[in-house]
Amino acid sequence: MMRNETFMRTYSPRQEALARAAAQQAATQPAAAASPADMSQYMMKAEPYYRAVADEVELYEAAYSVRMPLMLKGPTGCGKTRFVEYMAWKLGKPLVTIACNEDMTASDLVGRFLLDASGTRWQDGPLAVAARYGAICYLDEVVEARQDTTVVIHPLTDARRMLPLEKKGELIEAHPDFQIVISYNPGYQSLMKDLKQSTKQRFGALDFSYPEHDIEAEIVAHESGVALDVAKNLVHIGERARNLKGHGLDEGLSTRMLIYAGSLISKGVAPLAACRVALVRPITDDPDMRDALDSAVTTYF
Ligand SMILES: Nc1ncnc2c1ncn2[C@@H]1O[C@H](COP(=O)(O)OP(=O)(O)O)[C@@H](O)[C@H]1O
Ligand SMILES: [Mg+2]
Q: Under DSSP, is residue 220 helix (H, G, I), strand (E, B) or coil?
């Protein structure tokens, strides 16, 4: 049993009022517009390729079994999104992904009234859809969202597992299968853009980083179609560049970038040109840095 029943009785008057409103509404109105059948669009059609790096698959399964909200922490392009797609497939649950951005409002998450020919109609936002019908809801790059937007997830992340739709006067009780997952890049945080402690402390966290050499080469070869020895050279270049992080580079070369370079090579682009386009040029404008990275490339190709 996920929900703490006694919690409801000690809960705030406002929430109790919402709950009463919801109960009344449920008695007088049919369920919301979207039907559970719509969830098929959120099901993974095929098994996503995911190469486990440590015990993250088992840890996720354990976290899901108690519906613990999870935070996937790590630099961009290291496999966080792929991992959650894979886990949704493995658990057989729909996955609702929300790419967070600064302009996102609470209504973009929970829903809004729309005007149409027949009057006004409520439309659930993606968070409401996930909570109502039992999806894994993945908020990608959550620090990009404003803090006043992020707080709408709070009631879903504690024992209440509720989502108040204040404008509609409805209180959604999360479906038993619902889980919330966020991704978070610790390198990007600043005082202005970070998660509140009150948000962070609602989540368990899994650390992600670039995989160890042989595993990363396997991933690059699989995803880009290059031979394993070429993939290994790309990973060597990636590792060289990662050592420059903090010494002129803000971020290391991601696995995603190595895959781009490999994809160009497998399309017939010469390795030197492919690495310049996919690895060196995007990551820095500094001429000395570019020279340093170009020479790392020529060491391996
Ligand atoms: N462990 C892994 N198994 C399979 N593919 C991976 C793995 N790690 C990274 N990738 C590849 O790297 C790409 C970028 O990963 P992604 O999940 O989009 O990164 P993030 O969400 O951390 O920014 C993916 O599209 C996938 O091809
Ligand atoms: Mg991602």
A: helix
Query: How many CA atoms lie within 13 Å of 103's alpha carbon, on the beta-carbon side?
Result: 0
DSSP lists the bridge partners of residue 70 as 181, 204
Give, rounded to a whole angstrom, the gap between the first and last alpha carbons of the chain: 57
Q: 138: Cβ below 6 Å to ligand 1? A: no
Residue nearest atom 13 in ligand 1 by C-alpha distance: 256
Complete DSSP assignment for 166-190: TTTTEEEEPPTT-EEEEEE-GGG--
Q: How far is the CA of 174 from the centre of ligand 2 (A)?
A: 25
Nearest CA owner, ligand 1 atom 6: 79
Q: Which atom of ligand 1 is nearest to the CA of 79?
A: 17
Check pocket membership of 113 for ligand 1, CB cut-off 6 A. no
Number of H helices, E strands in the chain: 14, 9
CATH classification code of 5-207: 3.40.50.300
- Predicted TM-score (pTM) of the model is 0.86
Taking 50 as the pLDDT cut, the residues of the chain under it are 1-15, 17-18, 21, 25, 27-34
pLDDT in tens, 110-162: 999 999 888 999 999 999 999 999 999 999 998 889 888 899 999 999 888 99
